[in-house]
Specification:
30% helix; transferase activity; 472 residues; L,D-transpeptidase family protein; L,D-transpeptidase catalytic domain-like; alpha/beta; Ubiquitin-like (UB roll); cell shape; 33 strands; 12 helices
């Protein structure tokens, strides 16, 4: 039947329907149903309600599969697993859209209308399937890459490898056609060559630029020594950004540069040393025990960091020097106890200390300038193994121990059960000597031998840190 004849017939049908009121009933019946002659992907849906139509399309779409063949292997997948789906709602709307026009009701009696399923794509899922298919076929290529070498001293290149990808006409087009026609399909995958996006030449150029940065000297002087950043350190500052089609210029991590500069600065910084001096009641300094020494702290670490980043970014080496701020030292002042000026140690008021007089072979314990015990006769080091002189401090105590050492002739000695030892200079201690019957002479290996009761008193009297002044 020609188009002209169909139109005439439709008009002939429509006129009586309108005149007789039948058209109104016809339109009401098909208001939300597929018109006569409606098909979806070749299957009739005439008269189906919106819900029934959606159900029919959904069921057919769920049954559609695509079998993919590649070499001796094959796999069958549903549409959704291949990144393609049927938009059921959009397909239903396409079927029912003519219902809005009165002429469509009339022409539906004498004509048919086929609607393809509306297809949607999940490009990410589709790409993932393509990648999987290529890898399974052993045809994957690879872009060239630039990475830090295992030794961390330079950047190296992994060359590009030319690969293949799935020809869209043998996969994507077939899957889309199967979805649009709601018909399962079988296809044999074809592969086409793919040129790597990032070439080996581009990677080599980027690596060379990064290694040039690493090769430039970066050194900072602390005023005495120059500290040069190692290749490994500089390499840790550098990164090679990857762009869509290659690599960008090497970049520097300013925070990492700053961390290195800060470490150099911290090593060069000096903590101030607090001085200790004894003063008399008038405030005059009578003795300096520890000299006060100013400290220093780096003042330009941030500026040096910026200078390093700027120099390397300008393809230049860099040498700089730390500048410092002075950290003034402080003094601890102790007032000498009245009368201590004439003693071997200028003790502060209330300070405990021990006087070891090697000429008199006596030991005296003091609190400030006041005698707490003594003088008590002792046995100090013999001429061959003399006791040391100077100002010391008790640093270790042991109530009972075995002492070992060397005699003047080089032979070894061992003395068990030595009581109440207070060590103040290496292996030299004030301790009890129960093996001696008399005291007041020089005969020991260097230690100060005391009566056991005196050694016990000293052990209890003098805590760790107590000054010991040994003199002739």
């Amino acid at each position: 039947m020609t188009t002209r004849r169909k139109a005439l017939l439709a008009a002939a049908v429509a006129l009586p329907m309108v005149l007789g009121g039948a058209g109104t009933a016809y339109a009401a019946h098909y208001q939300d149903k597929a018109l006569p002659g409606s098909t979806v992907a070749g299957a009739s849906v005439s008269g189906l309600t919106r819900e029934a139509l959606a159900s029919a399309v959904r069921e057919r779409a769920a049954d559609v599969t695509v079998t993919l063949r590649s070499g001796s292997t094959s796999r069958t997948e549903h549409l959704a697993d291949l990144g393609v789906d049927v938009d059921v709602d959009a397909t239903v709307e396409a079927v029912l859209s003519p219902n809005a026009s009165w002429s469509s009701y009339a022409t539906s009696l004498v004509s048919s209308r086929d609607v393809s399923a509306v297809v949607t794509h999940d490009e990410t899922a589709l790409d993932d399937v393509v990648t999987e298919l290529v890898e399974q076929a052993g045809k994957a290529g690879r872009d060239a890459t630039v990475a830090l070498a295992e030794d961390g001293r330079s950047f190296t290149v992994t060359p590009a490898v030319t690969g293949q990808t799935v020809d869209p006409s043998s996969f994507q087009d077939v899957v889309e056609q199967a979805a649009a026609t709601l018909t399962s399909a079988t296809t044999t995958l074809e592969f086409v060559d793919v040129t790597p996006t990032v070439t080996t030449a581009a990677a080599k150029k980027a690596a060379a630029a990064a290694n040039a940065v690493i090769g430039r000297t970066v050194a900072i002087s602390d005023g005495v020594s120059e500290h040069e950043a190692s290749r490994r350190t500089k390499a840790s500052w550098v990164s090679v950004p990857q762009t869509a089609d290659g690599f960008g210029a090497p970049t520097l991590d300013a925070d990492k540069v700053g961390a290195w500069v800060t470490s150099v600065a911290q090593d060069a910084e000096i903590e101030p040393t607090e001085g200790l001096r004894y003063v008399d009641a008038a405030g005059a300094v009578r003795q300096v025990m520890t000299e006060a020494v100013d400290g220093r702290t780096a003042a330009n670490a941030d500026a040096l960091t910026s200078a390093v980043v700027t120099a390397l970014g300008s393809a230049k080496a860099y040498r700089g020097e730390l500048a410092y701020d002075t950290v003034p030292a402080t003094w601890e002042e102790r007032e000498i106890a009245p009368g201590a000026e004439s003693l071997a140690y200028l003790a502060a008021v209330g300070e405990k200390w021990i006087d070891v007089n090697l000429s008199q072979h006596t030991m005296t314990a003091y609190v400030g300038a006041d005698v707490a015990l003594g003088p008590v006769s002792m046995v100090n080091g013999a001429a061959e193994t003399p006791s040391s002189t100077g100002l010391f401090h008790v640093y270790y105590k042991n109530p009972l121990m075995t002492m070992r050492g060397s005699n003047a002739d080089g032979s070894d000695y061992e003395t068990p059960n030595v009581p109440w030892s207070s060590f103040y200079d290496g292996g030299i201690a004030l301790h009890g000597a129960p093996w001696r019957d008399s005291f007041g002479y020089a005969a020991s290996h260097g230690c100060i031998n005391l009566p056991v009761s005196t050694a016990k008193w000293v052990y209890d009297f003098a805590p760790v840190g107590t000054p010991v002044a040994a003199h002739y």
